[in-house]
Each structure stands twice: as C-alpha cells, then as structure tokens.
Amino acid sequence: MTRINSNIPALLSNRQLGRSQGRLSVSLERLATGLRINRGADDPAGLIVSEVLRSEIAGVRQAIDNSQRAANVISTTEAALNEVAALLNDIQALVVQAANSGAVSSDEIRANQLQIDSAVESITRIANTTSFAGRRLLDGSLDYLTSGVNTGDIEALSVNAATFGNRSYIPVTINVTQSAQHGELRFANSQIAQSISIQVAGNNGVVSLSFISGTRASAIAAAINVVTEATGVSAGLINPGFAASGIVLRSQRYGSNAFVQVEVLPSSAGTFALIDAGGASTNRDIGRDAAATINGATSIGNGRDLILNTTGLNIALTISEAFNRPGSTTFAITGGGALFQLGPGINSNQQVNVGVRSIAASELGNGTLGFLSQIVTGQNYSLVNGESGRAAKIIQEAIRQVSLLRGRLGAFEKNTVQTNVSQLQITLENLTSSESSIRDVDFAAQTSQLTRDQILVQAGTAVLAIANRSPQSVLQLLQ
Questions:
Q1: Three-state DSSP class for residue 4
Q2: Quick one: how far is CA 107 from the chain centroid?
Q3: Which single residue of 81, 222, 259, 476 could bond 183 by disulfide (Cβ 3.0 to 4.6 Å)?
C-alpha cells in the first residue's frame, strides 16, 4: 500500500537511528572520560556504591597523610631526646671523674662543674625550643593535665596515654590492696656470744664484716649502715626504744627484686641466727611488690611502682611511703596530651592519645633524689659541694626517664604509626580496586561497542535516506 502523508518506514528508521546515535554518544563519552558511570542515569546503584567508596578512599588517603605527619612529629621529638641523652651521658662522665678526688684537683672539679652547668642549660634549652610546625614538643605542652593528685599518697605520676572519648575528664581511682615490702631479716638478740664474720649482701653488692664476742646488736647495725651504699642493706633496732630488742636488716629497695642476705662463716655458724618477719629461720629474704587496682583494672606492681596499660588509660605512678598500705586515693585527668587522628573515621577507636612530659632540667629526676637542676653551681648537689654521689644518682634517674620516654615514643612510631600506614595503604589499594571495577570503563569492551554503534549509525542514516525516497515512487503513478 502506497502512502505519502505518513512515511512509517522513515519514522521507524529515524527512531532506530536516534537510539544508535545515543549509544554512540555514550560510548564516546565513556572513552573520553575513562569512566563507565558519568551520571546517575548510567548506573544508579553503581553510582551510590562508588560514591561511598570514593568517600572512604578520600578518608583513608588523609589518614595516611595524618599518620605520616605523626611519624614526623615523633621522629623530631625522639631526635631531640637523643641529644638530651648524649648530654646526660657527658654529665655522667664528668661526675664520675670528679668523684676521683684523689687524682683530680679542685680546679678540675670546678672546670667539670662549669661543663655540667652548660650541659644542663642546653638540656633546658632543647626542652623549650624543640618544635614541629610551631607546636612545642618537649616543654610539657603535650603532657597531660591532672587535678586533685594527693602528693602525700602519690610520690610520682606519669600519664602516658589517655582516651577521653566524649568525656571532659577521666576520673582515676587507685585502690591499693597489698603494700610493698623490703627484704627483711632479724637478729633478735642484744649481742653476739662469740666472734663472728658475716657477709651482708643486697642489690648493690656484698661486704664482709667481723665482730668480736660481746658486740652489741646496735653496734652491728651501725657497722652495716656504714657500708649501706655498697650493699643496699640498712639496719636498725627492732624496737627503736629498746636497744636490747635486736636488729632488723632491710633492703633499701622495695619489691620482689629487692633482697637481703647474710652468710655466716662456717666457723661461727649458729651464733648469728636470723629470722624473717614471719619468724621463720632463714638467711635470705626478698621484698614484695605492691598490688593495686586502677579504675577496677589490675595494675602491675614493681616495688612501690604501679603500671596500668589498658586501651583507654596508660599510667605509671609511685605510691608514697605514707600510702604504702591498703587504701584508696583518687584524682582526675582533665586534658592535655597529643591527639593523633590515624584512621579515616573520627572516633576514639581511630585516634591515639600520647603524652610527652617536659624534659627540662627542673623536671628530670624525682622528689626523693632531687632534680637535674639541683646539680648546677649554687645548688644543693653540685660537684663543688662534694655531692658527686648524689649527683650521680640524680643523673642515673634522669637517664632512665629519658630512655623510657624514647622507648615509648619509638614503640608508638614503629608499632602503631608505621603499622597503621601499612594497613591503610593496603586498604587504599583494595578500595581503589573496588571503586575502579564499578566505575571505570573497560576500554576493550567499550571500543568494540563504539565500532558497533558507528556502524549502526551509518546504516541507520542510509536506511533513513532510502525510506525518505520511497514516497517519490508515487509520482510514476501520476504520469
């Protein structure tokens, strides 16, 4: 049937040509952008998933940058601490040299003191000037703030890490369940019946002492106290108000690592009978560590030192002599610390808090021994005052504190930051691969589709031209 008002073949050809041109346009767009999904209409579900993955990828990339920056901060801090450690070792050598007073003149000791003054000043300067992008690192700016600490109960406190979450402060309750004890031996007689020789041993070393028959116990205690520094053992009366009560020998240190031991030479065995605090016959006794719970969690005791390391709180403290008994004390951590965002999500599980104490000379040491600032000229424990022994102990404590801080920061950098970067990089690879498989175009398949679409467009154009010429055949009927 021949019609000229409605060219149905042309309409059909035009519709198919339009569809082919649309597919060709999509193929060209995908090949030009490299993406299979350029708008929501391309794949609504795929777009939703890929956008979520893109968001996660952006977070992971920033978390990697944050972790690397955290590593840089820690590296800068540790490098400064390395210089402080070197200065402390130099000071230690100067103090030991000054102690050799039989071969070192007073002028040399004063010269050593000047070097110590300069080194101590340098340590404080390092503490006050070490910074990263304007952030002070070692002046106490990154240390935690505490409130309500009873110094009569807690002799020393170090908050290494604390997770606040949505809390404005962290309450801390310390419940001591077992006191720390010295190693202790007792000689419960007023004097010795015959001449004896004993070897007194403690954590510092061993010393031999000899006493004649009839020596009073108080005189034996005095002789033991003369060599306390060499042995780590001190002595006193069992009953301070009654000299005939006998003597008690104690390790200067507390805890299971502390001990006191007395060996009586075989020729005088039995003339210096010793018992422990429980009355059992023995010649050696070790101390006992304190036991306590901190916020309900069991802490690790070492003498009077307590350590708690949980997910939300890492603290180390020393209970005082007065508080070395069952009881409780409380304080609060009110702020401070360095917060590092190491994960792609902003929550406490993906954040790490680290405290960095001040390493100024006035902060290195402790209240019992003294502080590093007290070994300089004009202070109590300077070399020119003849306090090389006390100065050496202060320096050893300062070296211990700096070493512990370096070790803790090094462990954080290696075991937390570096492993976190490695894990995030693996996560980034997998997320990127997943996002790519959803959103990126397969060039091989799309190129084949482009060829097909081009042929269909060309064929559709030719067919439309033929369909448009078909009505002209009607003119032959009018001739």
A1: coil
A2: 44
A3: 259
